């Protein structure tokens, strides 16, 4: 089986490329923006078409315009990268008989539910990032019943820094830490994702939308505080393990509106694959056993 990974310089794409290249009987092609630039949908389609792949092969799209505020500033660019290009790539994959696994986001929801979001819930994006990602999901799903849209949240892992790395790094030089306490979701560890997403390489797993993240729910503040505790436990010389609460409404630097509560319900994934994602705290604890600043 040939696996083509787009966005393989990113947080998730790097982890998939690194972990999947050792899988038996697969050939992994790690593609970057230099290989396929999604800001030009016609050219992106032509670049993907220049690769040999077909029935039984899988394309994984981890590439996206992920700067949520940046998407508000360049709406047309975001639409090309997050919606139009995925649509074209999805139709090309469908024509070749290949599956596309497209990575989606919890930001397609408005975050007003007081329970985790299932795949059946109506998306209502609050930001242009969420809107363009939702359009991308729809284009991909319309192209073939074989394709999968896997929505994830709060991605972290060793290949590229994220919120947890930033809070721990800052605490190496400052005794003050603060994070939003009234926004909740669930972290999603890329090392776990590499195992979970491999399930979608099996074409016996039906296409459609899936929600995927580590189990449990937390606020950015809980997440940050737990990361600092784990760092301290592993001898990382952080100057604090307590995180002051901030309100989402006080985050004046945010341009895009963020949804407050977007934990994803992973029951469908569990039902289909028999895999139960482990708690986010276990994943974060493991991450800090090998963490480097
Ligand atoms: N990070 C999160 O917390 C989070 C939460 C929910 C959903 N997601 C979704 O998860 C997926 C993976 O996210 P991630 O955390 O791995 O993000 P990331 O680290 O920002 O990676 C995104 C990748 O997309 C590439 N890219 C951006 N613009 C491109 C373009 N015009 N053409 C081709 N490639 C382009 C980037 O390339 P360069 O390396 O060259 O910049 C980068 O490698 C995305 O679909 C994202 O929407 C992420």
Give a description of the structure.
- This protein is an alpha/beta fold.
- It has one domain: Rossmann fold, CATH 3.40.50.
- Helices cover 38% and strands 15% of the residues.
- The protein has ten helices and twelve strands.
- The protein has helices at 11-20, 41-49, 68-73, 75-96, 128-143, 163-171, 190-198, 220-233, 267-273, 280-287, and strands spanning 2-6, 27-31, 58-61, 99-105, 148-152, 155-156, 178-180, 184-185, 188-189, 208-211, 218-219, 244-246.
- The strands form four sheets. The protein has a six-stranded parallel beta sheet, with helices on both faces.
- Helix 6 packs across helix 8 (220-233).
- The relative contact order is 0.16.
- The mean pLDDT is 98.
- The site of NADP nicotinamide-adenine-dinucleotide phosphate has 27 residues, from helix 1 and strand 4.
- Residues 7, 9-13, 32-33, 36-39, 62-66, 81, 103, 105-106, 133, 152-155, 160 line the site of NADP nicotinamide-adenine-dinucleotide phosphate.
In what order do the strands lie side by side in the largest sheet? 2-1-3-4-5-10
Return residue spans where pLDDT drops below 50 for at least 5 consecutive residues: none
Order of helices and strands: EHEHEHHEHEEHEEEHEEHEHH
> Helical region count?
10
Give Rg in angstroms. Answer: 19 Å
State the CATH class.
Answer: Alpha Beta
* Number of domains as seen in the coordinates: 1
Q: Determine the N-to-C terminus distance.
A: 37 Å
Strand proportion, as a percent range, falls in: 15-25%
Helix proportion of residues, in percent? Answer: 25-40%
Under the CATH scheme, the architecture is: 3-Layer(aba) Sandwich
CATH superfamily placement: NAD(P)-binding Rossmann-like Domain
Tell me, what's the shape? globular
* DSSP E strands, number: 12
Give the averaged pLDDT, no decimals: 98
What profile does the largest beta sheet have?
Answer: 6 strands, parallel
Ions, cofactors and other ligands present here are: NADP nicotinamide-adenine-dinucleotide phosphate
Oligomer: single chain
């Amino acid at each position: 089986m040939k696996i083509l990974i787009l966005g393989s310089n990113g947080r998730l794409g790097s982890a998939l490329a690194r972990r999947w290249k050792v899988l038996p009987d697969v050939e992994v092609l790690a593609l970057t923006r230099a290989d396929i630039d999604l800001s030009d949908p016609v050219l992106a389609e032509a670049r993907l078409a220049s690769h040999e792949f077909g029935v039984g092969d899988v394309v994984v799209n981890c590439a996206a315009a992920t700067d949520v505020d940046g998407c508000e500033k360049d709406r047309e660019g975001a639409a090309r990268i997050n919606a139009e290009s995925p649509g074209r790539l999805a139709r090309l994959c469908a024509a070749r008989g290949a599956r596309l696994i497209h990575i989606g986001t919890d930001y397609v929801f408005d975050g007003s539910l007081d329970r985790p979001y299932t795949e059946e819930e109506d998306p209502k994006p609050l930001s242009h990032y969420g809107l363009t990602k939702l359009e991308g999901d729809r284009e991909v799903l319309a192209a073939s019943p074989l394709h999968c849209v896997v929505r994830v949240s709060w991605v972290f892992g060793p290949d590229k820094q994220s919120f947890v790395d930033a809070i721990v790094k800052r605490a190496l030089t400052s005794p003050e830490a603060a994070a939003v306490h009234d926004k909740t979701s669930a972290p999603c560890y890329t090392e776990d994702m590499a195992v979970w997403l491999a399930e979608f390489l099996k074409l016996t797993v039906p296409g459609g939308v899936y929600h995927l993240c580590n189990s449990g729910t937390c606020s950015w503040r809980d997440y940050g505080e737990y990361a600092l505790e784990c760092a301290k436990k592993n001898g990382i010389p952080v100057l604090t393990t307590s995180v002051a609460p901030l309100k989402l409404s006080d985050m004046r630097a945010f341009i895009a509106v963020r949804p407050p509560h977007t934990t994803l319900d992973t029951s469908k994934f569990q039902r289909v694959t028999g895999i139960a994602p482990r708690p986010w705290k276990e994943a974060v604890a493991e991450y800090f056993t090998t963490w480097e600043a």
